[in-house]
């Protein structure tokens, strides 16, 4: 019999009584993809959860401020000839388009590859679903920078996504280091502070 690499289901999909999912994001941070120490970072659950995210020396994460209506993230399964993968997409709407924002956009246009950490409105039953990471494996590059002075209240819409041929092995990854408080403390300790 030929060897197969296909997996089989090993457990149930279980309904969580009393749980109702919610949409939307509270906050978002971007990380330069190459700033993650992948040999020290720890993944679990077949690569679907990050239990210890480690940055390289002097690396930081960057806030992306907005409202729950202006922060978005999603993944989509891509069925490919030689195995399935996921395209991760992250969107940010800039209500203010000043000098700093224009320079950050230009960094993306000139090749910056990023990962996003998203704090969700839906935290799960006990906070276990609060944080998710998009683009961990391949990073995401800019695919959209849209502005129209007569539409969308004059905001700028940015989008980054997985590049074709670089699909991620899993969908969005849970991010939980021991518990929600520890994860949030890690985020706060590693967030860039302007001089």
Brief write-up:
It is built from two helices and eleven strands, in the order ββββββαβββββα. The chain is mainly beta.
Secondary structure layout plus pairing:
Elements: E1 25-32, E2 42-44, E3 49-52, E4 62-63, E5 71-78, E6 85-94, H1 99-109, E7 114-120, E8 131-134, E9 141-147, E10 156-161, E11 173-175, H2 180-190
Shape: globular
Helix/strand/pairing category: mainly beta
Indicate the low-confidence ranges by residue numbers: none
As a whole number of angstroms, the C-alpha radius of gyration is 18 Å
Number of strands: 11
Give, in order, the helices and strands.
EEEEEEHEEEEEH
Measured distance between first and last alpha carbons: 64 Å
User: What proportion of the residues is helical, as a percent range?
Assistant: 10-25%
The spatial strand order of the largest sheet comes to 2-3-11-8-7-1-4
Give the overall average pLDDT: 94
The total of helices stands at 2
How much of the residues is beta strand, in percent?
25-35%
Largest sheet: 7 strands, mixed
Question: What would your notes on this structure say?
Answer:
- The protein has 2 helices and 11 strands.
- The chain is mainly β and 195 residues long.
- The strands form 2 sheets. A 7-stranded mixed β-sheet has the order 2-3-11-8-7-1-4, with no helix packed on it. A 4-stranded antiparallel β-sheet has the order 5-6-10-9, covered by helices on one side.
- Strand 9 and strand 10 form a beta hairpin.
- The protein is globular, with a radius of gyration of 18 Å.
- The N and C termini lie far apart (64 Å).
- The model has no long low-confidence stretch (mean pLDDT 94).
